[in-house]
Amino acid sequence: MLFQVYGDTAVYQWIGWILVFCCLIGANELARRTKTGGVIAFLIVPAILTVYFITIYTAAAMGAEWALNNPTYVHMTSWFHYAKLYAATAGCIGFMALKYKWGSIGKSHWFKCFPFVIVAINILIAVVSDFESAIRGWGGTWVSTEGVTLYGGWHNVFNGVAGILNIFCMTGWFGIYASKKKDDMLWPDMTWVFIVAYDLWNFCYTYNCLPTHSWYCGLALLLAPTVANFFWNKGGWIQNRAFTLAIWCMFAQVFPMFQDYSVFSTQSVNNPNVNLVVSLIALVANVLALGYILIRAKKQGINPWMQEVFKGTKDFEQAIARAA
Predict the structure, then answer these.
(1) 231-235 CB contacts, 8 Å cutoff, 24+ apart
(2) At CA 119, angle to CA 128 and CA 110, rounded to 5?
């Protein structure tokens, strides 16, 4: 109903999905458990890739054939991909500064609001992309710079609004802790209420605006950090999300053929009516999540953004128990 997973390539599509899901979980574990792993993943590799990207675009501007035919140059031209890659990487670096207490910034109280700021920026990048699609293709279709046909309409508007609401579903902005083992940055107040609302919104964004990638970046990429949070890394969802997102963006930017033109490629049905249903589900979920947060805050007489609103809940208490 949602994806074109059938025919001779269906088995490869499922294998590809399982591989992406498992590899993201494994890569997240390698990056989070040691300082060396995190530095390699989010400082050294992005620095090398930056040189690679600049070289490609400089050579392409000079007319070099190898650069003009480079998969990254041909298939990953959208501003969104680069914005997402570097915003996610910035988040990973900031989260490491907090959990390892790097310098005066990592030890300061004011910097604890950084996770909220960087996540809000990442959400707004996607919201802008949704609204861009609505404007460019309202009531019809438009073709992105990467040659993907997209529908524009109310589904983009509804999901864009859901994304904005999702920002306000982040509570306890300063309730950031390092775990006892110093392997995780914890945000205990970011419970299942936010996670479910976020996952539905973000899946809908990928479904609306990245129909050729959503099978992987809308399902496998979202489920990897969520599964880790629910089963063995309670309170570390936002770190899981940032780490897996940055790693995936790096892979997808360098090897676009995996999603775009291989036996693993998987298209959504790309039907505006289906998009509308998914968008309405995301919008309703975020309205309900924000309403629940405001009700809890009112009962406790607190500001849900400056104070932790989910104290006493099972998720919160399990996460805070891991804090140093």
Answers:
(1) 233/32, 233/184, 234/315, 234/318, 234/319, 234/322, 235/177, 235/179, 235/184, 235/186, 235/187, 235/188, 235/190, 235/315, 235/318, 235/319, 235/320, 235/322, 235/323
(2) 130
pTM equals 0.94
Which pLDDT tens digit goes with each residue over 105-148? 999 999 999 999 999 999 999 999 999 999 999 989 999 888 88
3-state secondary structure of 170: coil
**List of residues 6+ apart from 316 with CB closer than 8 A:** 188, 189, 191, 308, 310
CA dihedral angle for residue 190, residue 129, residue 46, residue 25, rounded to 10 degrees: 40
- Could you write out the DSSP letters of every residue in 14-44? HHHHHHHHHHHHHHHHHHHH-HHHHHIIIII
